[in-house]
């Protein structure tokens, strides 16, 4: 049984038709799957459909063999990290991280255990009482990551989580995210428009352009045997 399967998925908005066209894709358990493509190619739309934040126009979405097209987001056992982190400004780091667990009424001592473990892993232990505005960009990004990790969801979706960071921090956080993903054996679907990020992080990569899959493969396959000119130039050209 595969954690995530997309079968002939298409998406149209009222104002914009055919944003995604017949997407077929199977994600393996524990794999770091990267969705890469230029701005406007449909990456966020696809991720939001998997999260249940966007309706599916056509096709089937399955989790572990079960059809989930109409399952509400809260009942999908997944976590999501957004580009802008979406932290609550009036809550401190600890409250931000535990927000979802409190909503789910997870027992206090279990919350504490997860909080300790996660903040230690991400180097946030000294910042628990700070508000988001008292943190650097990198620390805020770590809080968003921590909030997703504490959910202990086996499936994690990330939409350009590093795009607000400077180059040095971005490189460091790539390693960090990879390390945690492997350690916790998470199934990851990671969206980026940055081909370097895609090539360094992905076990497999899907290249999307204009809502159409161009190629799916391991980094080395995309590099050595691009299926078309778009993939060759997109993967080949540095940012
Ligand atoms: P990406 O994340 O790859 O930049 P998006 O998924 O955000 O791409 O957008 C893909 C296309 O769908 C774009 O042309 C965008 O304008 C359009 N689009 C995205 N969201 C909406 C929406 N809510 N309503 C109408 N069109 C949208
Ligand atoms: Mg996007």
UniProtKB/TrEMBL annotation:
One of its GO terms (molecular function) is ABC-type transporter activity. It comes from the Bacteria. One of its GO terms (biological process) is carbohydrate transport. GO terms for cellular component: ATP-binding cassette (ABC) transporter complex, substrate-binding subunit-containing. The keyword DNA repair does not apply. The keyword Heme does not apply. Keywords: ATP-binding, Cell membrane, Membrane, Nucleotide-binding, Translocase, Transport. Residues 4-235 form the ABC transporter domain. This is ABC transporter ATP-binding protein. It comes from Natronobacillus azotifigens. The chain holds residues 1 to 239 of 370 of the full protein.
């Amino acid at each position: 049984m595969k954690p995530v399967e997309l079968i002939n998925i298409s998406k149209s908005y009222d104002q914009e038709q055919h944003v995604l066209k017949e997407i077929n894709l199977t994600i393996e358990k524990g794999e770091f799957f990267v969705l890469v493509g230029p701005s406007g190619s449909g990456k966020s739309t696809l991720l939001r459909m998997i999260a249940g934040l966007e309706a599916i126009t056509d096709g089937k979405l399955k989790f572990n063999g079960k059809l989930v097209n109409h399952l509400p987001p809260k009942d999908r056992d997944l976590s999501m990290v957004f580009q802008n982190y979406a932290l609550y400004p009036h809550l401190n780091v600890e409250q931000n991280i535990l927000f979802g667990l409190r909503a789910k009424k997870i027992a206090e001592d279990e919350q504490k255990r997860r909080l300790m473990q996660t903040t230690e892993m991400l180097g946030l232990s000294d910042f628990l009482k700070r508000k988001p505005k008292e943190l650097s960009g990198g620390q805020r990004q770590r809080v968003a990551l921590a909030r997703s990790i504490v959910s202990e969801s086996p499936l994690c979706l990330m939409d350009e989580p590093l795009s607000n960071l400077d180059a040095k921090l971005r490189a460091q956080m790539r390693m960090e995210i990879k390390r945690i993903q492997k350690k916790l054996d998470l199934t990851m679907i990671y969206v980026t428009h940055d081909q370097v990020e895609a090539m360094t992080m992905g076990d497999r990569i899907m290249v999307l352009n204009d809502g159409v899959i161009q190629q799916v493969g391991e980094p080395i396959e995309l590099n050595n045997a691009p299926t078309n000119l778009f993939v060759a130039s997109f993967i080949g050209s540095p940012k």
